[in-house]
Amino acid sequence: MSRFFRGGDDSSSESSSDEEELYSTSEEEEAENKEEQESSEDENDEDESSDDDDAGPKKTGLSRFLVDQDSSEEESEAEGATKVKSAKHKRFDELEATITIIQNGQKINDWGSIANEFDKLNRQVVKLQDGGKAPKAYIKCIAELEDFMNETLAKQKVTPKKLNATNARGLNAVKQRIKKNNKDYQPQIDAFRKDSDDFMESDEEEAPPPKATKVKFQDTFAPEEGAEDEDKGFARVDKRGKAIPFSPESIQKHLRSIVESRGRKNTDRGEQIKIMEELNKVAETPYLKIRVLQTLVSARFDLGSGTTTSMPLEHWKAAEKELAALLALLEANKDHVVIEGAEEWEDDDKTPVLGPDDKYIKVPGSVVSYIERLDDELTRSLQSIDPHTSEYIERLTDEASLYNIILQGLLYYETIRKDASLEIPQESLNRIIQRRLDHVYFKPAQVVNILEENSWKQVSTGVDSAITPRSVSGDAGQLIHTLCNYLFNNSEGIIRARAMLCQIYYLALHDEYYKSRDMMLTSHLQENIASFDVATQILYNRTLVQVGLCAFRRGLVYDAQNTLQDICGSGRQKELLAQGVMMQRYSQVTPEQERLEKQRQLPFHMHINLELLECVYLTCSMLLEIPLLAQIGSSPDIKKRVISKTYRRMLEYHERQIFTGPPENTRDHVMQASKALAAGEWKKATHFIHDIKIWELMPSADEIKAMLAKQIQEEGLRTYLFTYAPFYDTLAIETLSTMFELDSTKVSAVVSKMISHEELAAALDQVTKTVIFRKGVELSRLQSLALALSDKASALIETNERTLEVRTQGSANAFSRKDGRGGQRGGGQRGGRGGARAGGNTQRQAGGTQFTGGALGAAVRG
């Protein structure tokens, strides 16, 4: 009993406190054990009450503690057997708990918790629906909740009572959701409100929660035969957890909800596509199939909505097939048309039908927009793929299927435009023709013919095009001409300009230089190309380059150099042709500008070989600059002018090198050839030019090399005459013919031309076939000063014009000035080799981004 008395020492107090803690702990443990025992006994009682009817009667007294033999045998057979609730039983319990919370919230007017639990309730009921019917407890809850909400709103109108922010938000949320939610269960709600007791006690009550069963835990997780049956009660659900019944009657409702959710945050586009694929399977009428296919294609395009990401390949192919199916469906059902501006059908419960006065069922949409987007996604995909891999080649094969879609779309628009009552705009037809033209203008004729032949095989035999009949498909040139002429006559602005450029490009690609040059000059695009969009300016640059290459293949060196001067002389070939982004030194490029530049890049298969372009430009510059340098060196009083500053810089850099090894690249070959040509070694120069490997990429490379050899011979002759004229009194034509291996008639023609252009101070004796040179008269002091003053005045004028052009940013003044300068060159040089004294030729400005017709105009006037 000493522990009940306070001791004087610490040990007694400590021992007493320890004993008190021990007794209290033991009492708490006994209480917990007792509660667990009681709960387990209650659970056992419930389980025993829920057993099957074959269970024996309950045992009373001490006998209930005895182990039954049957139960002992079962436990010995299956160790680890336990009693658990099924998943469906647990779901019913969760549903009832949620309903209880909602009812409690109604009692205290807590709309914040009601709104949260209402969303939770809708997610739970999806898992318990059987055949589209919801549990009756759920029907009762939502019906009473709607009535309670209406009462609350009525009270708010009569006696306005300001709710707190949480309750106000919850009330608005329930108000927005419950009406749309209850619409799906309206028949059951009406039955409940008619007679709630009869509804709750009717025989159609859903199956009661299943009884708890014994689950046997096995050692291995082997699949059971009935495992697949467990998921029969599940259905596809949307983001809110509601079931999605797939039936023809519900298609329009699903489509409307999907269209309304497009562009919103946290929208699962992949799930929407799966839903629409299921809807496409159950669609029965042509109208529903058309609507589903339209929405499905649009949803797939949303996957590539980012500016830097391309559409996934499998979705692109699926969209292409679905678009082809849509066009086939429209062709089979002539009474259904997809046109822009049609009225949207508002009734989701019915589908439109033809009236007595109606000829068509009009579906709002734009086929040409789908085709353009599909084309843009293919281009974006090609931009993101490494062109030096097999993946690029495989992706490029999809262009044929896309071209088939474009042709079928064109045929569809031609068909519906025959009926004037539909009022199809001309612009739609122009856009799809332009897309077709964009896929063929840069291809050789053989490739275009094969593409057209394969595309027409996919079209029905009885269908033909009024714009491009089947007979035209075998002739690529006639096809391009037909498409371009149609756009010339029926379009304006950018589409018309692009059609002109496409035809010029195609003609230049197939060596029809004079036609392409005349079309370029008569189009006057060089005067207003700066006002067009960037894509059209890029096409203009590509066309200009192709015209220059065509002139080179035809042996027109001067025309080729003048045409290519603006592009190649700028040093920005990649940027101007949209074949790469060239970062300028000491300049900051914003991410937005960089992104736009990458979007403008052309796919690799549309590129023009820049190395070949540079080789052609430098070769032409060599053939023009070397004789000019020789002419200036032999006549110090001649005005120093420059044809190509780019070539001059390269030549000066090459001459400053102390040691020059064998040529390694294209520039080295051209520089070595220039040095040999200036020294009169035309054979060595020809050898250097022929060793350039890039010529093999041009068609008929042997003819190109033969043409270059001939040009080098002639320019070598001119260079020799300019260099050594001061050292000769007379020179026989036969001697020149032997030195340069040219026919004497050709030598006489070259010398006569030089004399007539006042490039050479000499006379040609026809009788003795000799060239008689005249010695130049030395200029007086006054004449030299006058020439120097003229040079400085010309330089000052040129500087002022450049300053004006910079300030006006290359406006119309720049075009008029450049055109005038081009005309002066043509008139003064008379074909490209006019003397310095003959007409005051101004110095040509270095190439830039503003292109003019001066070069081509000079060629025509010359």
From TrEMBL:
InterPro entries: EIF3C, EIF3C_N_dom, EIF3CL_C, PCI_dom, WH-like_DNA-bd_sf, WH_DNA-bd_sf
Stretches with biased composition (Gly residues): 823-838
Keywords (A to Z) from UniProt: Cytoplasm, Initiation factor, Protein biosynthesis
Coiled-coil region(s): none
An annotated GO cellular component: eukaryotic 48S preinitiation complex
Low complexity: bias regions: 839-849
Domain PCI span(s) in chain numbering: 604-778
Biased composition, class Acidic residues, residue ranges: 16-54
UniProt-recorded Gene Ontology molecular function terms: RNA binding; translation initiation factor activity; translation initiation factor binding
Gene3D superfamilies found in the cross-reference section: Winged helix-like DNA-binding domain superfamily/Winged helix DNA-binding domain (1.10.10.10)
Record localization: Cytoplasm
Any single biological process term in GO: formation of cytoplasmic translation initiation complex
Region feature Disordered, mapped onto this chain: 1-89, 808-862
Entry-linked PROSITE patterns: PCI (PS50250)
Family to which the UniProt record says this protein belongs: Belongs to the eIF-3 subunit C family.
Complex and partners: Component of the eukaryotic translation initiation factor 3 (eIF-3) complex.
Function: Component of the eukaryotic translation initiation factor 3 (eIF-3) complex, which is involved in protein synthesis of a specialized repertoire of mRNAs and, together with other initiation factors, stimulates binding of mRNA and methionyl-tRNAi to the 40S ribosome. The eIF-3 complex specifically targets and initiates translation of a subset of mRNAs involved in cell proliferation.
Stated name of the protein: Eukaryotic translation initiation factor 3 subunit C
Lineage: Eukaryota, Fungi, Dikarya, Ascomycota, Pezizomycotina
Name of the gene encoding the protein in the UniProt record: NIP1
